[in-house]
Amino acid sequence: MKLVHNVFDVQQYLDIKQQAFLSFSQDSDEYWTNHDVWSANLKDGIDGTVLCQHVSDKYNKIIAECIKPHLPEWDGEYDMMWYVWDKGSGINWHNDLPHKFAATIYLNDNWPKEHGGVFLWQEHKTYDIHGWLPKANTMVVNDHGEQHYVTPITSNALVCRHTIQIFPRES
After folding, report:
1. Bridge partners (DSSP) listed for residue 56
2. Degrees (nearest 5) of the Cα angle 136, 141, 143?
């Protein structure tokens, strides 16, 4: 598991974040939820809703240019989605396989640990469990198929948790 700080320069980050926050209101009929597509094991014991929407081609290209140096070698394109994690949402333990890698970019400026949404992962060599609190403009890259989990967002969270999810596009 790899953590990359300051994935975008400040202006890019602000522009991407604004687009992420606006995309659901602009294209309200072009989204799906975790209940529609995630397998049962990913939702087991987690009842909240994650809204999902593909990142536009324009922003996919901008984001890809910024993240490519931090990802495992990949000559193809990327599938990118905006995710909005509502109260009660999270994702159960999984490893992202069969994808070669997966990445998450955090978009919330401040995320209190009391609101859940903490990223936990189990190191593949030692089996130790580590945790990272979402931090704006930071990317987590799962480049070894490690088990990870997002703790459910608490009922007292004041805002939704916003991320960009990235996977290599398989032909």
Report:
1. none
2. 175
Residue % of the chain over a pLDDT of 90: 89
How far apart CA 163 and CA 17 sit, in angstroms, is: 9
- Euclidean distance between CA atoms 162 and 54, whole angstroms: 14
> In Å, what is the CA distance from 124 to each residue of 71, 90, 144?
18, 22, 8
Q: Write the pLDDT tens digit of every residue in 16-44.
A: 999 988 887 655 668 899 999 999 999 99
Of 108, 68, 100, give the one whose Cα is nearest residue 168.
100
Q: Residue 124: pLDDT band by 50, 70, 90 thresholds?
A: confident
Confirm if 63 and 55 have CB atoms less than 8 A apart.
yes
pTM: 0.94
Separation CA 92–CA 17 (nearest Å): 26
